[in-house]
């Protein structure tokens, strides 16, 4: 493709409106999440777990300096249950969104986000 998965998060990483908060990027599959994190980290000349990390079922490679976190739907759902405000997250990117409607969790994720934004 055009590189949206790897270019957009890196281009937005230093935006002032993010104010040092984390970018959370949702990938529909574990393999895609891992691959995206590896590619993003390599673009920065780093290893996964530094500026860029990922969380998938039974596997996590994030560190204290991680600013871009690539996650799968189960991880995002659990995170929203624990922290509906997504404290410390400045941007949520839905990558490969055309794949997402096939999942039963996405309406739940979107309704939780909408419910929280309506409370503010």
TrEMBL record:
Species this chain originates from: Pseudomonas syringae pv. helianthi
Entries under PANTHER family matching the protein: ATP-DEPENDENT RNA HELICASE HRPB
Protein name: ATP-dependent helicase
Residue ranges of domain Helicase ATP-binding in the record: 1-120
Keywords: ATP-binding, Helicase, Hydrolase, Nucleotide-binding
Taxonomy, superkingdom: Bacteria
PROSITE patterns: HELICASE_ATP_BIND_1 (PS51192)
Stored InterPro entries: DEAD/DEAH_box_helicase_dom, Helicase_ATP-bd, P-loop_NTPase
GO molecular function, one term: helicase activity
């Amino acid at each position: 493709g055009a590189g949206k998965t790897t270019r957009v998060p890196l281009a937005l990483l230093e935006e002032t409106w993010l104010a040092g908060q984390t970018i959370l990027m949702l990938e529909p599959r574990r393999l895609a999440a891992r691959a995206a994190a590896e590619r993003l980290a390599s673009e920065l000349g780093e290893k996964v777990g530094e500026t860029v990390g990922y969380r998938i079922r039974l596997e996590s490679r994030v560190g204290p300096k991680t600013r871009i976190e690539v996650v799968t739907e189960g991880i995002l759902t659990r995170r929203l249950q624990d922290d509906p405000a997504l404290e410390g997250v400045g941007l949520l990117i839905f990558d490969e969104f055309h794949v997402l409607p096939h999942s039963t969790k996405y309406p739940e994720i979107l309704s939780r986000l909408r419910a929280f934004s309506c409370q503010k």
